[in-house]
Amino acid sequence: MYVRVLPDQASGKLLDYRVPEPMRAHIDVGSRVQVPVRTRLLPATVIDILQECEFRSVRDVVTLLDEKPMISPALLDLARWMSDYYCCPLETAVCSVLPVAVRDGKVSAKKQNAVRLAKPIEEDALRVLSARAPRQAEALRVLMNAPHPMLVTLAANEAGVSEAVFRTLEKQGLVIIESATISRNPYSDRFVAGAELTLNAEQDAAMVAVREAMDKPGRPILLFGVTGSGKTEIYLRAIREAVNQGKTALVLVPEIALTPQTVERFKSRFADMQDAIAVLHSHLSDGERHDEWHKIHKGIARIGIGARSSIFAPLENLGILIVDEEHEGSYKQDEAPRYNARDMAVLRGAKENAAVLLGSATPSLESWHNSQTGKYRLVRLDQRVDDKSMPVVRVVDLRRATRSTPEGGVLSRPLLDAMEGRMAKGEQTILFLNRRGFSSSMICEACGHVCQCSDCSVSLTYHRAAERIVCHICGHSSRAPKSCPKCSDPKIRFSGMGTQKVEEALKKIFPKARISRMDADSMTRKDSYRETLGAFKEGKIDILVGTQMIAKGLHFPNVTLVGIINADLGLHIPDFRAGERTFQLLTQVAGRAGRGEMEGEVFVQTFTPFSPSIQFARHHDFQGFMEQEMEFREKFAYPPFGRMVMITLRGTVRERVEFSARTLSRKLKAAAPADILIGEGVPAPLEKAKTFHRFQVSLRGPSSLKLARLAKDTLTILTMPEDVFVAVDVDPLHLM
Ligand SMILES: [Zn+2]
Ligand SMILES: [Zn+2]
User: Which of 372, 377, 388, 637 could lock 642 by a disulfide, CB 3.0 to 4.6 Å apart?
Assistant: First the structure.
């Protein structure tokens, strides 16, 4: 018996090995092994089982790393597809299916002492003991109430006694202490069982559709529900349904939304089966990740919740795959393999015959398009639960608004007045700062004019050094204007509004207010997020200032005002999805207001108040936004009507990167059929990142697969300088 393996680092080479007799019963496709390659021992994945071997001398597999194959045939298949479609080496795709903490086998299960009662104890006996040895009685009482063996440390903590008390009880034969493999539970809180909520008529109908999809998978469901319409309740019930059928369920949420609040909601609903839930996300320690993964692999966990990479969680017998906020950009991985977990979920569902449920208040154009062509089934939730009204959205025109005080800077008078009013009433405010925005577009602060490419309809990027404005999709470039082409005001030269200073400015304007900031910089610890949100929930904070981090899924009944400080920063990035993102963001952020009994109000500050994304978001008009955005996408053959591949080259020597990009563009043009458009090699909007100069070449055409193959074939025959690195992004989401 022989195996064909793919070493983790061996540049895509498949190698054959003989399987020694004792391993034969356990080795299978997807098994992880160690094999000798030249003088080294390398970890590898079994790709195929062979009965014969064509080579005369073949070496032996040295170690079999796990009794049960780590990668199921279905997941291996998914990796193969990913390598082909996303244009990356197979070993990179295979490795991404296994978390590092599991792959290298260095982290092992943790053994600890657990304690349980040796025999049931009568309440009377306990009372007698309680008079004589109250601490022992308390220790026993804790165990009586525990459904499972408890960690000695935890039990001692809970009983308020020392661990020695349990040793004493062990000597008396009342309890048993044994070494046990204990999962490092990242959320060790105890959860109160959450009851099912009553469904309204729309939710009832949605559940009918979900059940139908589970009975007869094939067509994914797009659950389009406005913010506050109760999508999570549908997810929870769908999961319960799958579990009741003896199947498993996988839920993907954006990393940023995987808050303790979210996890708590799932864990409390399934409080009756705590151990059956595994949570996977990037804040876990290696040990925790290892344990959670193995809990799934062994079949103990039947519900997986996690961010992007959990799409590869080794759940078997999948009943349903749920992708919450399916439009979210964070589902796209920004390093190889550059997959989109939402799309992988649809594919995995099809391959494993599971229902797929994609949910969003602002579906992506791709998914919406699929729901219109019938590829997906559209299910709508148009009502907020309890018929709460949507918040009132007010647009503040920054071209006209009197900007408050010098300290206030970007805070307009109407917004400040509103904040003051809310504070006086003891209500809370969320201020949203769009820091992911890009300030190299030319936008006139006097009239709101934005410099755009007439062929591609994306904002042009202002490259200061060369004094030029460039379209990085088609490559067109021209001299940067000295003043606004529309109103001649020189203010087109100023950009960036000093948003970092908002927190300090606020402190000066409202010296008595309790203000907190929440962004990636201030939230570095796992618990800081939870602590700040906890304080906010308890009303200990009046104003919460934050970035994208606070836009998602938070639910605070006392928040009645949301201010969006700089709606423009995201709107005019040089990306054809800028309008879609802005609409989504405004809708999400606005959805944070008025979740309780009181009506919510939203202020959007902008220099371009009439841009469609802002106007449609203001009126909560998704349909209207979709119609006009689809028209624009179709006109310029952008996704979902056409496909795109973006190749980014980077290196420390600018000339070499530029030359390589130009050469690549020329070669692609020579090889491309008529229906594929190739852009020039031009500087990326983010021209320099860290020490690297960046250039891009775009490919556009009707099929991603064809674009990816053209890119791959051309790159294979082209010799790049050693210090120029190439990244191929198929279906790119971020064009920077
Ligand atoms: Zn102007
Ligand atoms: Zn262009």
Answer: 637
d(CA 571, ligand 2 centre) in Å: 17
568 CA from centroid of ligand 1 (Å): 15
Distance CA 356, CA 155 (A): 41
Instruction: Indicate which ligand has the atom closest to the C-alpha of 454.
Output: 2
Ligand closest to the CA atom of residue 491? 1
Pairing between strand 221-225 and 377-381?
Answer: parallel
Q: Tell me if 274 sits within 8 A of 235, measured CB to CB.
A: no
Ligand closest to 447 (CA) is 1
Kindly provide the b/e burial profile for residues 537-554, where b requires at least 16 CB atoms within 10 angstroms of the residue's own CB.
beeebbbbbbbbbbbbbb
- Distance (Å) from CA 477 to ligand 2 centroid: 8
Q: Which ligand is nearest to the CA of 442?
A: 1
Q: Helix or strand or coil: residue 292? A: helix
Between the alpha carbon of residue 586 and those of residues 114, 403, 429, 472, 661, the distances in Å are 50, 22, 16, 26, 36
CA of 464 from ligand 2 middle (Å) equals 19
Ligand 1 centroid–CA 418 distance in Å is: 29
In sequence order, which residues have a C-beta less than 8 Å from that of residue 243 and are 6 or more positions away? Answer: 249, 270, 273, 276, 302, 303, 319
Tell me, in angstroms, the distance from the centre of ligand 1 to residue 482's CA.
Answer: 11
For the chain, give the longest Cα–Cα distance.
92
Ligand nearest the Cα of residue 682 is 2
What are the tens digits of pLDDT across the range 377-396? Answer: 999 999 887 677 778 889 99
Q: Alpha helix locations (H) across 558-653? A: 567-571, 578-590, 612-618, 622-635
SS3 488: coil
Mean pLDDT per 10-residue interval, the chain, length 736 residues: 88 87 91 90 91 85 88 93 92 89 65 79 85 88 77 80 88 84 52 74 95 95 91 95 96 82 84 86 79 91 94 96 94 94 97 97 95 96 79 85 56 89 91 63 82 86 82 86 89 59 80 83 65 86 80 72 81 84 84 68 88 90 94 93 95 95 96 94 84 93 94 93 95 87
- 685 phi and psi angles, rounded to 5 deg: -55, -40
d(CA 100, CA 282): 12
Q: Ligand 1 centre and the CA of 166: distance in Å?
A: 77
Identity of residue 113: N
Counting ligands in written order, the one closest to the CA of 453 is 2
Are residues 234 and 265 in contact, defined by beta-carbon separation less than 8 angstroms?
no
